[in-house]
Specification:
169 residues; mainly alpha; globular
Length: 169
């Protein structure tokens, strides 16, 4: 898989989330985010269960893995972007760090008589996201090294909506 293929897989995942959310809206589903979450869980299950098998097929392993993971990241990023009304993008850590710096600057500027003040709730949210990303990266690397591909299976259980079938009807 080339860089272009990875990018196209990511874009396809984001587009798929958009299609599924709009489909849910049009059908007035109880939860318009249930279908993308189910698809994300399915991708994680496929990766977790098939990863060890695919590793034996070297020629297929790397392209398939990169494509599935990029597609899943696109799904996740678009889902969080939709849920947050474009306030948060989960895969743009540099944007989170930049926004933290901006809020800190607003706080520092607001100490004088200036009318600009920082947003404490936003700073807490952004800092929590950055911390979660860092902890998730370390725990994910450790889990993959210790357990292997099946380390993604508990993640699939967490992102699966509890009433997905009822939400999509």
């Amino acid at each position: 898989v080339t860089v272009i293929g990875a990018l196209l897989s990511f874009i396809a995942g984001a587009a798929c989330t958009s299609l599924l959310v709009n489909f849910g809206r049009q059908r007035q589903a109880q939860s318009i985010f249930a279908l993308p979450l189910l698809l994300e869980a399915a991708c994680l299950i496929v990766f977790g269960l098939m990863g060890a098998w695919l590793q034996g097929l070297r020629a297929l392993f790397i392209p398939a893995t990169v494509s599935v993971l990029c597609f899943t990241m696109g799904l996740q990023n678009a889902l969080v972007t939709k849920v947050s009304r474009s306030e948060i993008r989960t895969t743009h850590v540099t944007g989170i760090v930049t926004d933290i710096g901006i809020e800190i600057g607003r706080f520092l500027y607001g100490f004088g008589d200036a009318p600009v003040q920082g947003n404490t709730a936003k700073l807490r949210l952004l800092s929590g996201l950055l911390l979660a990303f860092a902890v998730g990266g370390v725990v994910g690397a450790w889990a993959f090294k210790s357990i292997g591909y099946s380390a993604t299976l508990p993640l699939a259980a967490v992102v699966t909506p509890q009433r997905a079938s009822a939400s999509c009807s």
